[in-house]
Amino acid sequence: MPQLLLELFCEEIPARMQARAAEDLHRLVAQGLARNGLPGERAEAFATPRRLALVVDGLPAAQPDLREERRGPRVGAPEQAIAGFLRANGVTLEQCETRDTGKGEFYFAVVERKGRPAAEVVAEVVADTLAAFPWPKSMRWGARPERWVRPLHRILCLFDGRVVPVSYAGVAAGDATQGHRVLAPEPVA
After folding, report:
1. Gyration radius of the chain's alpha carbons
2. Given this model, what pLDDT does residue 107 score?
């Protein structure tokens, strides 16, 4: 099953914030993925002075297809009620089913939604997580409105070995990281 690797590389994160930031990253991404039908088997977050990282194993390749039934007005209800129900669910009267519920016959709309690819969902979840990250103290840099604990330099976001197109504070995700600033300053793919 596919794996998600997320690394946020920035300037030095204060030591007192590192452990909590790793927990918050784990919690926000895991909740976002689960809310969108992509629960992972195992997730682990890491923190160093210059980076936060998260690895989520066992993600499905796509969201599951959904089939939802919605009960509408009673058969023979006023036209306005039926029209409102059809408009709200995006169906026509011919697409609705008529069922006897024991309390009379009602219209039922069956809405089927195809699951989206997991990479699209991951991009949305990561972008939402970065925007809502709960730093106790954060800053802005340059003329950007986004906030982060220290200036963000790189985002590494890979799903199943491919770059997920996400960006934050003018930094687009890629497939490279950086080692130690003195011992290995060159980007590493």
Report:
1. 23
2. 93
| Bridge pairing between strands 187-188 and 105-113 | unpaired
Backbone angles phi, psi at 38, to 5 degrees: -125, 65
Contact 149, 21 (CB under 8 A): yes
d(Cα 28, Cα 127) in Å, to the nearest integer? Answer: 11
Token readout for 179 is: 């080692």
Q: Using CB atoms within 10 A of its CB, is residue 38 exposed (0-12), middle (13-18) or buried (19+)?
A: buried
pLDDT digits (tens, 9 = 90+) for 37-89: 998 899 999 999 999 999 999 999 999 888 888 999 999 999 999 999 999 99
Q: What is the DSSP letter of 92?
A: -
pTM, entire model: 0.81
Nearest-angstrom CA–CA distance, 27 and 185: 31
First-to-final CA distance of the chain? 22
Q: Assess contact for 129 and 22: CB atoms under 8 A.
A: no
The DSSP element (H or E) to which 53 belongs, if any, is strand 51-57
Torsion sign, CA atoms 86, 90, 92, 96: negative
